[in-house]
Amino acid sequence: VPIVVARNGEGPTVLLSSGNHGNEYEGQIILRNLISTLDAKKIRGRLIVLPGLNAPAVRAGRRVSPLDGGNLNRLFPGSTNNGPTSAIAGFVTQHLLPLCEFGLDFHSGDPSSCYLPCAFLTTCSDSSLHEQNVAAAEVFGADHTYVVEGWSAKPSFDANAHRLGVSFISTELGGGGGTTPETLSVGKRGLDRVLDWLGVMPASHLVPCASTTFLDGMHPESCVTAPADGIFEPCVALGEQVVDGQIAGYIHIAWEPGLTREVLFQSSGIVAVMRRTASVKAGNYLFTVTPELDRKAVLRMSGRIDPT
Ligand SMILES: [Zn+2]
C-alpha cells in the first residue's frame, strides 16, 4: 500500500486517502498530483497520504480486492488475521488513525453511476465531533453535501474514524469510471480549502465557494429502479430538481421494438446519483433523489440511534 508522510514543525496530523474503491478515480488523481507537487517546507504538522488505499483493487481497476473480494469500506475496523483487505483496514485503524486529528477519504461513483460532485458526511453520536465534521464539509465547499446517518455505515472508514474521535469526511466526486475537469476541480479546490482551514498547509490563494446545500441520503423512497430488463433512456440530468410522479425515464425492451416501460419518480428532491450505463436489468438502480436538509436539521442528526 503506497504511503507518503510529510512532516514539518508543529501542527495537526491529517490523513488523506483515495482508492478505498479501486475504480473511483478523481481522488486517486488529486492525491497523486498533491504528492508530486508537495513542498514539505509549506506544511505545518504532518500529512499522511494514501493515494491507493486498497492497493490490490487499485492495481486491478476494481471496486473490491481481487485477492479476497474484500470491499475495504465495509471491513473497518479490520483485523490482522482475516485476509488482506481487512488487514489494510486494521493497519489504518491501529497505526494511523490514532495519530490523526482529521481525515478525508475520496470516493466517486462506480463505473455504472455518477454522483453530483459532493462532500459526503456521515453523522456520529458525538455532537461536538459532528459539528466539526459539518464545518469541514462546509469548508470543502462543494455545491452539495450528501448526508447519511452513522448507524447505516458502521463498517465504513468514516464511522470507524468517528468512533476513535477523529474528525473525518469523505467525498463522492463524480465517477462513471472516469473523471472530468469539473469533478477534479471540485475535489482539488475542496482539498486546498480544508488543508488551509486546518492550518496544515496554508494556501496563498483559495478559490472562493458558495455555501453547500445538504442532501438527505437517508430518504427511503429516494431510489428509483428499473422495472424490467432493457435499455435505459433518462429524461432528467444529474442535479435537476424533480417532483413525485414526474417521468424519470423509459426502459426500452431490447427484444421488442416499440415496447417501453415508463419510470416515474416516487419522491421530490435533487437528483444526486444517476445510472451511467444504458443496459439495465430489472431491479438495477437508475436514480437517487435527495431532499434538501437545512443546517439545523443536519446538526440535529447527531446522536440518532439505529432504528433497527
Ligand atoms: Zn467508493
TrEMBL record:
Residues 11-196 form the Succinylglutamate desuccinylase/Aspartoacylase catalytic domain. The keyword Amino-acid biosynthesis does not apply. Pfam families: AstE_AspA_cat (PF24827). The keyword Ribonucleoprotein does not apply. Its cofactor is Zn(2+). One of its GO terms (molecular function) is hydrolase activity, acting on carbon-nitrogen (but not peptide) bonds, in linear amides. Keywords: Hydrolase, Metal-binding, Zinc. InterPro entries: AstE_AspA_cat, N-alpha-Ac-DABA-like, N-alpha-Ac-DABA_deacetylase. This is Succinylglutamate desuccinylase/Aspartoacylase catalytic domain-containing protein. It comes from marine metagenome. The lineage of its organism: unclassified sequences, metagenomes, ecological metagenomes.
